[in-house]
């Protein structure tokens, strides 16, 4: 193993993967923009904010790689100094996480009408954001990598809370979608697709967050954590945009099913989507019925 494999090498791997994910973010963002969904202003604002943060952070990450591998090529002592790009990464990641989790919490509420569930998720999300922001700012104040040990409790609270929020969101969404199955093949195929999407996105971001957590706490004298830390924000943005853009495919499936059942014209039906799901209390049994509707 080379002298800089666990410092420069792993950081560059994280930057390469981050850049790849940013390319997917750009495609997803253009897809969302071009389809002109009739979403609420606050949803569009979240999408725009995440895209701006991702763009800036991806540029900063490229600069971090250049600074480490080119500018300080003959200055290995610079690896012991905390670059401003590290605090920026922590704050940007915490910001992306809380915005995405806020949207997903709204989605959970529309599916379940459960305020306690949303409150619990909101608490973990807020705790993650506060500790993530603090850990980022504090790392810049510390200035030297050898002193990163004092950050471990804050990083554990940050990434631990963030992961709990993500797993809660995933489990609740899976449960809500599973209860919504109707017995109709094509409708259930849509629901199964939503369940698979929830599992994939929830586990993906959790794996990276836990990877960041364990590598920082166990190998804080290396940059192994950076391999996981840099891409996390892009994973959150892709999660949100994939959720919104999946309505395009769901529209096709829902229309096909509606057309087969009633022979309706393209403008005569309302389709099932995952972004505008409304839960209504059933007075007879206390359960909820999932009713989805969005404008064509």
Automatic annotation (TrEMBL):
Superkingdom in the source lineage: Eukaryota
A Pfam short name: DUF6534
Keywords: Membrane, Transmembrane, Transmembrane helix
Stretches that traverse the bilayer: 6-30, 42-66, 78-104, 116-135, 155-178, 199-218
Statement: the UniProt record of this protein carries the keyword Ribonucleoprotein: no
Domain DUF6534: 163-247
Keyword Transmembrane helix in annotation: yes
Record's protein name: DUF6534 domain-containing protein
Species in which this protein is naturally found: Psilocybe cf. subviscida
